[in-house]
Write a structure and sequence with these properties.
By secondary structure, this protein is mainly α. The protein has helices at 3-34, 40-48, 50-78, 82-115. The N and C termini lie far apart (49 Å).
């Protein structure tokens, strides 16, 4: 695959993730205002529902992919030492994957608690 195609793929990924992030940020507050999620149990039950949980998991994934593409592009453009760039990319990847695992764990625990 050519470098131009890789750049186009990253560009498209960032644009599509940005669209999803914007939709989520607009729609979720509206849904929160129309539902009674005024307590911890109600909040946990709402995020334990399949629709809300999947939408939130996709939000976390889109946010992390968006951040990865942005950070990768910045590091490729401005960090010229290969060893330093690879070290920073590895550190960022680990932090983003760890963050995703924490979000998915929280959503899974909310789903399990609301199902029982």
């Amino acid at each position: 695959m050519s470098r131009a195609a890789q750049g186009l793929r990253a560009w498209l990924l960032q644009r599509f993730s940005a669209v999803y992030l914007a939709l989520y940020v607009v729609i979720m507050p509206v849904l929160m205002l129309t539902r009674d999620v005024s307590g911890y149990a109600a909040w946990r039950g709402w995020f334990g529902q399949p629709g809300t949980g999947v939408a939130s998991a996709l939000f976390a994934l889109a946010l992390l992919l968006h951040a990865w593409v942005g950070m990768r592009d910045v590091l490729i453009d401005y960090v010229h030492r290969v060893w330093l760039r690879l070290s920073l990319l590895s550190l960022i990847a680990l932090l983003l994957l760890g963050s995703l695992m924490l979000v998915l764990r929280a959503l899974l625990l909310a789903a399990v608690a609301s199902g029982s």
